[in-house]
From TrEMBL:
Transmembrane segments: none annotated. Pathway: Purine metabolism; purine nucleoside salvage. GO terms for cellular component: cytoplasm. This is Purine nucleoside phosphorylase. The purine nucleoside phosphorylases catalyze the phosphorolytic breakdown of the N-glycosidic bond in the beta-(deoxy)ribonucleoside molecules, with the formation of the corresponding free purine bases and pentose-1-phosphate. NCBIfam families: PNPH (TIGR01700), PNPH-PUNA-XAPA (TIGR01697), PRK08202.1 (NF006054). Belongs to the PNP/MTAP phosphorylase family. InterPro entries: Nucleoside_phosphorylase_d, Nucleoside_phosphorylase_sf, Pur_Nuc_Pase_Ino/Guo-sp, Purine_phosphorylase. It comes from the Bacteria. Keywords: Glycosyltransferase, Transferase. PANTHER family: METHYLTHIOADENOSINE/PURINE NUCLEOSIDE PHOSPHORYLASE, PURINE NUCLEOSIDE PHOSPHORYLASE-RELATED. The lineage of its organism: Bacteria, Pseudomonadati, Bacteroidota, Flavobacteriia, Flavobacteriales. It holds the Pfam family PNP_UDP_1.
Length: 272
């Protein structure tokens, strides 16, 4: 069975469950699920019920696809995402983006929790991703038959939608939210970085590091789907003062910054 057939099967299942013509797709990262409380939910389905869908294996990722209205727009929300470190391929990780696109989304918003490499950025602040570095050693477009689904050699000169990014920056200004802008490096994980790796990431120009997002951005560009992404900075990665990682602390930092991220996304959606 071809990838296209798998995507079609999943989309048809969701359409039969009431997922009708969503306009905007949203992918929620670690500790960033509360935007769902703002949605008038019409339908929700667990990932493990959707044909051909991967299932979330990370305990703090929910594993549900939610459909409803937010600020008058029809949205489809991934509450919990997939990662290469769970044993998935990049095609698995990005499968939901292709399904949401087939359902009808015209724009994609992505969030993640990331470590701040740029030491001018502080824990609990937010970074708008302006560009990225793919250090996952693979591409979600590296498979036979990809050219049937879009241009194989996708241009990545401006992977993040300039217009939506400007609108997000304006919302931040209007709402007095500290919003940094920077470059996100995506690594495989799940282990965190060594001191030498943090130094390397700084040298190559990364402002933040995480284990997600870039595959979804590549596929969004393959589908010519305008996309914006926000990192919630959950720890400060100072190689000269590195302390052992504390996952509950990272989740707490994500929860602290989450209301600002929700404001940025909901106000943007209102204006789209």
């Amino acid at each position: 069975m071809s990838v296209s057939k798998f995507i079609k099967e999943a989309a048809e299942y969701l359409q039969n469950r009431g997922f009708e013509k969503p306009e905007i797709g949203i992918i929620l990262g670690t500790g960033l699920g509360k935007i769902v409380e703002k949605i008038d939910i019409i339908a929700e389905v667990s990932y493990n019920h959707i044909p051909n869908f991967p299932t979330a294996t990370v305990e703090f990722h929910k594993g549900k696809l939610i459909y409803g209205t937010l600020e008058g727009k029809k949205v489809v929300v991934m509450q919990g995402r997939f990662h290469v470190y769970e044993g998935y391929t990049l095609r698995d990780v990005t499968f939901p983006v292709r399904v949401m696109h087939l359902l009808g989304i015209k724009r994609l918003l992505v969030s993640n929790a990331a470590g701040a490499i740029n030491l001018n950025f502080k824990k609990g602040e937010i970074m708008l991703i302006d560009d990225h570095i793919n250090l996952q050693g693979d591409s979600p477009l590296a498979f036979r038959g990809v050219e049937k689904m879009g241009e194989r050699f996708v241009d990545m000169s401006a992977p993040y939608d300039v217009e939506m990014n400007k609108m997000i920056e304006q919302v931040a200004t209007d709402s007095n939210i500290t919003l940094h802008k920077g470059i996100y490096a995506s690594v495989v994980g799940p282990q965190l970085e060594t001191r030498a790796e943090y130094r390397y990431l700084k040298i190559i120009g990364a402002d933040a590091v995480g284990m997600s997002t870039v595959p979804e951005i590549i596929v969004a560009n393959h589908l010519q789907l305008p996309v914006s992404a926000i990192s919630v900075l959950t720890d400060e990665c100072d190689p000269d003062n590195l302390k052992p990682v504390n996952i509950p602390d990272i989740i707490a930092a994500a929860n602290k910054a989450e209301p600002d991220m929700i404001t940025l996304f909901t106000e943007l959606i209102k204006q789209l």
